[in-house]
């Protein structure tokens, strides 16, 4: 069959041999059938738009196509994607700021139960990241953005329902908190979708903007919820969930109206399997737990820690941790480009150790100023470490390609990013749970912080030995 964009209008019905493929919306048979009811529209050079806003022939590496409208299309899809992912991250993190408010709303919870409510959304979100990645080529980026945005209504509505009744059982609260994990999966599908819209030369910047837009959602929800729930002399916690319903509908409408599905996108299961077999995928994933896992874990636990350790402090300042951790992420990439991502990652772990020690000293002295500044320091270097590792991944896979072609190496590196992103997100579950265990066993969080210091030492040593030590195989590559 000739390329889609060169096909003349179809006059005859599809043959029997087309039947098996017709069920796939971006197969050639489906396109053949769509022309019976809708004439394809030439969108830009080499690209045909068919029913459902499926783009056939999209190739951002083609200069003529990119210059004559392709770049504008990519920007529109990126803008809507950032908004949808922003909402996903915000809903993923919403329990981090709702939980400290539950006692004031009449709920009676133990410290361990509160940390369970904070941590379980991260566990579910991390688990959903892999299937969400493969949903984009299966259903289309536009279609999946609509679906994933509408799915956010479920945890938002359920939250509004359960927090309205202080007699709600802990089991129901935990189930509803787990539903917030839908928002965590959005990151993976959003990143996978945008990767299809940009050429390699501009992909890094686009994915960086997309990721930053999502991360800022964590800070935004922690800033907004304390303001939204104020109701006279009390609080109206249900508003924290209700506000997401119109916003999620808006994201779905914007995706339906302005985004596109890329018919030529395909799930690269071969590259995914190759990345799973590559030892550096697992080394980098472990290291990423220490950076991104720390960011999302501290972001989830920070408001609860503030409420527990310094009850006199207004929780409205809790958002600053997630904010500085988000905006510092690009700095890690810039520093990694200049000095090498591995050495920047090692320095980040060293700085995180200093921050954790500062938090311990602040707790022992009951000095809110030292506690708060030290935690912000921790957040800053989790962000820098996130950015530097994202710089490391493609450099390491180029250096270990062993004769593989450049395109194949890039695809395997992209698969590694997806795997590392999913595994790293489990830190959002592990850190709050460690705080809970520490509090239960010792009555405070200092023991947990010493555990984190030990982990950061081990991860710094691992990064140094594998990627920085002069005698290591990759030291000369300055990854």
Averaging pLDDT over every residue, what do you get?
Answer: 87
H/E series: HEEEHHHHHHHEEHHEHHHHHHHHH
End-to-end Cα distance: 45 Å
Structural class: mainly alpha
The CATH first-level class of the largest domain comes to Mainly Alpha
CATH-derived architecture of the largest domain: Up-down Bundle
Largest sheet properties: 4 strands, mixed
Folded structure, characterized:
The radius of gyration is 24 Å and the shape is globular. The protein has 3 domains: about 5-55, no CATH class; about 80-260, MFS general substrate transporter like domains (Growth Hormone, Chain: A, Up-down Bundle); about 270-479, Up-down Bundle (Growth Hormone, Chain: A), CATH 1.20.1250. The longest helix has about 35 residues, at about 65-100. It has about 475 residues and is mainly α. The strands form 2 sheets. It has a 4-stranded mixed β-sheet with strand order 1-2-3-6. It has a two-stranded antiparallel sheet with strand order 4-5. It is built from 19 helices and 6 strands. Helix 2 runs parallel beside helix 8 (about 200-230).
Q: Would you kindly provide a brief summary of this structure?
A:
The chain has 19 helices and six strands. By secondary structure, the protein is mostly helical. A hairpin with a 2-residue loop joins strand 4 (230-231) and strand 5.
Provide the descriptors you would attach to this structure in a database record.
479 residues; mainly alpha; Growth Hormone, Chain: A; 3 domains; 4-stranded mixed beta sheet; 6 strands; 72% helix; globular; disordered N terminus
């Amino acid at each position: 069959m000739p390329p889609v964009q060169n096909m003349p209008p179809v006059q005859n019905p599809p043959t029997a041999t087309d039947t098996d493929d017709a069920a796939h919306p971006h197969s050639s048979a489906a396109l053949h059938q769509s022309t019976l009811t809708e004439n394809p529209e030439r969108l830009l050079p080499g690209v045909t738009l068919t029913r459902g806003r499926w783009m056939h022939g999209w190739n951002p590496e083609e200069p003529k196509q990119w210059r004559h409208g392709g770049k504008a299309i990519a920007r529109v899809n990126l803008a809507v994607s950032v908004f949808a992912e922003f909402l996903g991250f915000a809903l993923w993190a919403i329990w981090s700021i709702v939980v400290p408010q539950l006692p004031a709303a009449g709920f009676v919870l133990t410290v361990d139960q509160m940390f369970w409510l904070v941590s379980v959304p991260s566990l579910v979100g991390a688990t959903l990241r892999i299937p969400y990645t493969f949903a984009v080529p299966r259903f289309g980026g536009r279609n999946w953005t609509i679906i994933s945005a509408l799915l956010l209504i479920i945890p938002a509505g359920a939250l509004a329902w359960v927090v309205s009744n202080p007699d709600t059982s802990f089991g129901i609260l935990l189930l509803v908190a787990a539903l917030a994990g839908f928002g965590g999966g959005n990151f993976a599908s959003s990143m996978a979708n945008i990767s299809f819209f940009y050429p390699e030369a501009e992909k890094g910047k686009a994915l960086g903007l997309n990721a930053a837009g999502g991360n800022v959602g964590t800070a935004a929800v922690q800033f907004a919820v304390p303001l939204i729930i104020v109701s006279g002399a009390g609080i109206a916690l249900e508003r924290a969930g209700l506000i997401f319903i119109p916003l999620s509908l808006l994201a779905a409408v914007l995706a339906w109206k302005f985004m596109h599905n890329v018919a030529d996108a395909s799930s690269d299961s071969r590259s995914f399997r190759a990345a799973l077999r590559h030892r550096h995928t697992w080394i980098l994933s472990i290291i990423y737990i220490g950076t991104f896992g720390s960011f999302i874990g501290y972001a989830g636990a920070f408001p609860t820690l503030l409420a527990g350790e310094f009850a006199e402090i207004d929780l409205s300042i809790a958002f600053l941790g997630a904010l500085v951790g988000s905006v510092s992420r690009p700095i890690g990439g810039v520093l990694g480009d200049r000095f090498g991502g591995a050495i920047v990652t090692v320095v980040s772990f060293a700085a995180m150790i200093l921050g954790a020690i500062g938090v311990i000293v602040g707790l022992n002295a009951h000095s809110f100023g030292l506690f708060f500044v030290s935690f912000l320091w921790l957040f800053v270097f989790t962000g820098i470490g996130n950015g530097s590792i994202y710089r490391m991944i493609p450099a390491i896979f180029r250096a270990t390609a062993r004769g593989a072609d450049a395109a194949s190496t890039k695809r395997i590196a992209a698969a590694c990013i997806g795997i590392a992103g999913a595994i790293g997100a489990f830190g959002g579950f592990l850190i709050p749970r460690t705080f809970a265990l520490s509090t239960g066993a010792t009555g405070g969080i200092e023991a947990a912080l010493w555990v984190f210091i030990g982990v950061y030492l081990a991860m710094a040593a691992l990064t140094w030995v594998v990627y920085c030590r002069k005698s290591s195989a990759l030291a000369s590559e300055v990854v």
